[in-house]
Specification:
single chain; about 260 residues; 3-methyladenine DNA Glycosylase, Chain A
Length: about 260
């Protein structure tokens, strides 16, 4: 059982995370956000899909810039809301716009897989930022996170829901129970199933692997909806769940 004493004395190395990000308010995480340069030297232009065409809006692949490593090398509470409206690119032309995320904060977050330290299962979260951490849950589903911060910090962002943009036919083939497009990626397990993300993708580099996250120029919402995270039993009051206000593709009805 976790005690107050264990929280008061975090693991060696975790103090750095706390000191670096103490200015991020737990009550108002969005207030700490700012537009930051993310190292254009690391930005790469995605080569697929040729265009995104949901709703008749076409986006040329030349406008898709893969997020650089420096984007992820920050507090997960900063990265999570800024991932909103970014595009997850998968194999054979599948893509979706990220509309919901959750931040997990390592040694200071009892709900994080990394709270108790590094294991074979969560090793990716302690590695370099900008990689996929994929885990199995409830004995039947895969979920995917992006690793964030510096190596050894064990923080990341759960990709909770996305709005499908292209490759919907293939997504429906993988998500036979989906009754409509909304149900393809409206939840972390559904998202992974629609994109075919499994354990073999754990540790995949989001800058050069078969999955990437890119920007098409659409900024994150200036005032994202903020609320409590879903499906956890500890640290349940932390307001580290973010989504695009009014978007119908979020995973669950919003609870503030």
């Amino acid at each position: 059982m976790v005690t107050d004493a264990s929280i008061a004395q975090p693991r060696v190395g975790a103090v750095r995370l706390f000191e670096r990000h103490a200015a991020c308010s737990k009550a108002e995480p969005a207030a700490a956000l700012a537009t930051m340069p993310h190292g254009s030297d690391e930005t790469r232009v995605a080569r697929w899909p040729r265009s995104l065409d949901r709703g008749g809006v076409r986006v040329s692949r030349s406008r898709l810039a893969v997020l650089p490593r420096s984007f992820y090398r920050r507090d997960s509470r900063e990265v999570a809301p800024e991932l909103l409206n970014k595009i997850l690119l998968g194999p054979d032309g599948r893509s979706a716009r990220i509309v919901e995320t959750e931040a997990y904060c390592g040694a200071f977050d009892e709900a994080a897989h990394t709270f108790r330290g590094k294991t074979a299962r969560n090793a990716t979260m302690f590695g370099p930022p900008g990689h996929l951490y994929v885990y199995f849950t409830y004995g039947m589903h895969w979920c995917a996170n992006t690793s964030c911060g510096e190596e050894g910090e064990g923080i990341g962002v759960l990709l909770r829901a996305a709005e499908p943009l292209s490759g919907l036919q293939r997504m429906h083939e993988l998500r036979l129970r989906a009754k409509n497009d909304r149900e393809l990626c409206s939840g972390p397990a559904r998202l992974c199933q629609a994109f075919g993300i499994t354990r073999v993708d754990d540790g995949a580099d989001l800058l050069g692997g078969r999955f990437r996250i890119a920007s098409d120029g659409m900024p994150p919402p200036s005032a994202p909806a903020i609320g409590k995270r879903v499906g956890i039993t500890r640290a349940i009051d932390a307001p580290w769940r973010f989504h695009v206000p009014g978007n119908p593709f979020v995973s669950k009805p919003w609870i503030r």
